[in-house]
Design a protein that fits this description.
The complex is a heterodimer of chains A (261) and B (510). Chain A has 10 helices and 15 strands. Chain A has 261 residues and is α/β, with parallel strands linked by helices. Chain A folds into 2 domains: 118 residues, 3-Layer(aba) Sandwich (Rossmann fold), CATH 3.40.50.2300; 118 residues, Beta Barrel (OB fold (Dihydrolipoamide Acetyltransferase, E2P)). A 7-stranded antiparallel beta sheet of chain A has the order 10-13-14-8-7-6-15. A 5-stranded parallel beta sheet of chain A has the order 2-1-3-4-5, with helices on both faces. The radius of gyration of chain A is 18 Å and the shape is globular. Chain B folds into 3 domains: 180 residues, 2-Layer Sandwich (Beta-Lactamase); 110 residues; 166 residues, Histidine kinase-like ATPase, C-terminal domain (Heat Shock Protein 90, 2-Layer Sandwich), CATH 3.30.565. Helices cover 54% and strands 16% of the residues of chain B. Chain B is built from 11 helices and 12 strands. The chains are: A alpha/beta (261), B alpha+beta (510). Chains A and B meet through helix 1 and helix 5 of A and helix 6 and helix 7 of B.
Chain lengths: 261, 510
């Protein structure tokens, strides 16, 4: 796939369709827009797309409905769900349901661009590779979509890190902006912000809510460590979960039998 | 009122009073009766002795007529029923009732029974045993006394030789006296006592009723009325006048305290309710704003990226992006406020929060010729808080203070410290273990009406200048931090807002 991936933007707000089209076209993507999920599905039938950016709250079919229908129709389609802040839980839910990522509104150009970039890297992978089980080093990890993992560690704390599929879609990491120790973070809210060599800034969502106990100091010296060793030495933060029992349901298990995507 | 407290008390008291009066009356009437009878006995005895001695001489000379006359004369006195003399054999030989003469008296009649109860007649009987009370044939109660006439030397040495020397008792003098007067005296006493008892019981009832009404029913009724007012939902009106410092007075005082606390708790609850509605509203508004905000943010950030070579434009765009991002944070704040989440609490020194907040408003305040007087605790208390949110709270309070002062200048005093008992907020937990931030202005103060609506969402005195959300959000943030907020204001002289926040457990003081 040498050419830029084709993008379909679905939102019931014209201003968002316009701005997304304007930005993504300028970035060199061919962009189509749809004002609701039904017309988007119509477009997909006639003209298969690589990436869909779909609002969750739509009149008629919702973003979740679209996700389900679109996946059945075209397993190749990479779906990014956009959500309002009040629906972070829905964002997490959409990852469980197979969305590539979610983007909380209102988003900046950079936030949109970095997600679209990752989505297009992902879209370039043959479907077979996308569906690969995680490598054995991720044994015992719980995944938030194909973005991050959480793994139980000592004293009831959990380690959080970057999933294999995410690492495949980003350039070498240049710097990581961590939360402060003792901060409380929430499932689906910002875990770290990473700058990569291609000048993109990626917002990475936390797989669990909890209190930050420790951040991985080694990443200050060698920020790209996760690419070489994503779990043992390349973990991001140590967290004391606050709401483990409920939240673990939104995560998938790193069982070789289970596919993640 | 038949099962009311005063009815029960009156019935109980009257019952007791009646029993006491009855016992008292019985004892008194009995004593009176005894006394009257003793009187009768004494006079009867005296009379019988008088008869005996006055007839003695005539007896010795066997002058029957004279004896008869004396007996009749004495027997005619008022109250004396009969005077009789029996001889040894029981024959009535003298009597004021001529019909009795010659009759034999049975040994078992009342008059003889006393001495003849045992087979052998007694010869000497003490005076007290010589009396009897019986109902005469005509139905009147009668007192009888016998007086044996003993044989004396002068009797058997007398010329008539009517009696031999061996006789011990020659006969018996029997006097019967009517007890009518005594009985009617006793009866009159009984009536008097009954009247007294009735009056006493009526008086007791009346006094009890009055006392119970004054001491119990009225204050209790007041409390009951206040309780009904409270049940009707008006807690602030449910205040009872405290009568005295007895148990009911204390109850009323406690009731008032309870009502104050309840009113305060209800106020806080209402406030929470309002905040919850506000939260829902905010969530709706925020969601609506999110979309246009996304348009602005994407365009402006895109333009900013493309303006690398135009420094002037870039600067302007940076402002737009920054301010839009701020809007995003505000919206996020509103949504966080509506959801119970996402305040990033961590130990934060109060003084630093205060300094940051003051720095933000400094410029605006200097335009209004307002001075900020910072009186910060030397060792800053450390609270467990989301610094940004508490800063927002303080900025809000400072801006409100400045607005209250107006454009003519004034002073805002900001103090920090450890909370003491005097910072206690009515109806809230003790301020112990809390840090205090106090913002005092020299402004116009808050009216009583304003005080009631102060934390209501969309209540504003600033017209188009304010949204009316400021203090509601302040309240929400402080609630979320498990803190307290207290307002003291005097119209014309200024307002003090005290924020209490729990001191971070681990850190204490830095």
């Amino acid at each position: 796939m040498g050419t830029a991936p084709k993008i379909l933007v679905i939102d019931d707000e014209q201003v968002i369709l316009d701005s997304a089209q304007r930005i993504l076209t300028a970035e060199g993507f061919p962009v189509l827009t749809a004002i609701d999920a039904e017309s988007a599905l119509q477009i997909l039938k006639k003209d298969p797309q690589d990436i869909a950016i779909c609002d969750l709250m739509l009149p008629g079919l919702s973003g979740f409905d679209f996700l389900k229908e679109a996946q059945q129709h075209d397993p190749n389609l990479v779906v990014i769900i956009t959500t309002g802040y009040s629906t972070v839980d829905n964002g997490v839910d959409s990852l469980k349901k197979g969305a590539f990522d979610f983007l909380p509104k209102p988003f900046t150009f950079e936030e949109l661009a970095s997600q679209v970039d990752r989505a297009s890297q992902f879209a370039k992978l043959p479907v077979k590779q996308r569906m690969q089980p995680p490598p054995t080093e991720f044994a015992g990890c719980y995944f938030l979509g194909s973005q991050t993992w959480a793994k139980p560690d000592v004293d009831g704390t959990w380690l959080l890190g970057l999933a294999a599929m995410l690492l495949r879609t980003i350039d070498p990491i240049q710097s990581i902006e961590f939360p402060e120790s003792d901060d409380e973070i929430y499932q689906g809210s910002l875990l770290v912000r990473m700058a990569t060599e291609d000048q993109l800034v990626h917002n990475i969502w936390s797989p669990l809510s909890g209190k930050i106990m420790q951040t991985n100091d080694r990443l200050a010296q060698t920020p790209d460590l996760p690419h070489r060793d994503p779990v043992t030495s390349g973990w991001l933060v140590r967290l004391l979960p606050m709401n483990l029992e409920q939240e673990i349901a939104a995560l998938t298990v790193a069982d070789p039998q289970l596919r993640i995507s | 009122m038949s099962n009311g407290i005063s009815y029960k008390l009156i019935v109980a008291t009257c019952g007791v009073a009646f029993a006491i009066i009855a016992v008292f009356a019985y004892l008194m009437l009995d004593a009176q009766r005894r006394q009257l009878l003793a009187e009768v006995e004494r006079s009867a005895n005296q009379l019988s002795e008088t008869i005996k001695s006055s007839t003695h001489y005539d007896m010795l000379h066997n002058r029957s007529e004279s004896v008869h006359r004396i007996i009749n004369t004495i027997g005619a006195q008022e109250g004396i029923e009969k005077v009789r003399i029996f001889n040894k054999e029981g024959e009535i030989i003298r009597s004021t009732d001529p019909g009795d003469l010659g009759h034999m008296v049975d040994q078992h009649t009342e008059a003889c029974d006393m001495c003849h109860t045992v087979d052998k007649p007694l010869e000497r009987v003490p005076a007290s045993e010589r009396t009897r009370i019986f109902t005469a044939a005509n139905g009147t109660r009668t007192f009888g006394i016998i007086n044996p006439i003993y044989n004396e030397p002068s009797c058997w040495q007398s010329d008539c030789h009517a009696h031999s020397e061996t006789q011990k008792v020659l006969g018996v003098l029997d006097i019967s006296m009517s007890l009518e007067e005594v009985e009617s005296n006793i009866q009159a006493g009984r009536v008097r006592l009954l009247i007294f008892a009735l009056i006493a019981i009526a008086a007791i009832s009346f006094i009890m009723n009055w006392l119970v009404k004054q001491i119990v029913l009225k204050p209790v009724g007041d409390i009951a009325k206040a309780t009904r007012t409270a049940a009707g939902g008006d807690l602030t009106e449910a205040i009872v006048k405290v009568h005295g410092d007895d148990e009911i007075g204390k109850l009323a005082a406690s009731f008032n305290v309870m009502m104050e606390r309840l009113a305060e708790a209800q106020r806080q609850l209402l406030q929470s309710d309002k905040l919850a509605s506000l939260g829902r509203l905010a969530a709706g508004v925020a969601h609506e704003i999110n979309n246009p905000l996304t348009g602005v943010l994407t365009y402006s950030s895109f333009l900013l990226k493309n303006a690398e070579n135009q420094p002037e434009l870039k600067e302007d765009l940076e402002v737009i992006v920054r301010e839009t991002k701020r809007c995003r944070e505000i919206v996020k704040g509103l949504l966080d406020f509506s959801r119970q989440s996402a305040s990033a609490a961590r130990p934060a020194p109060v003084n630093e929060i205060v300094r940051n907040a003051c720095r933000i408003v400094e410029h605006q305040l200097s335009i209004q010729k307002i001075q900020i007087d910072m009186k910060l605790e030397e060792e800053s208390p450390v609270v467990n808080a989301d610094m940004m949110q508490i800063e927002q709270v303080l900025v809000n309070l400072l801006v409100n203070a400045a607005d209250a002062i107006g454009d003519n200048g004034g002073t805002i005093t900001v103090e920090t410290g450890i909370a003491t008992a005097e910072d206690a907020v009515n109806g809230r937990p003790s301020p112990e273990g809390m840090a205090r931030i106090r913002v005092t202005d020299t402004g116009c103060g808050i009216s009583a009406e304003g005080m009631n609506k102060l934390f209501e969402p969309f209540y504003s005195t600033k017209g188009m200048k304010g949204t009316g959300l400021g203090l509601a959000i302040v309240w929400g943030i402080i609630e979320k931090h498990h803190g307290q907020l207290k307002v003291d204001s005097r119209v014309g002289s200024g307002t003090t807002l005290t924020v209490l926040l729990p001191i971070a457990r681990s850190a204490g003081i830095i």
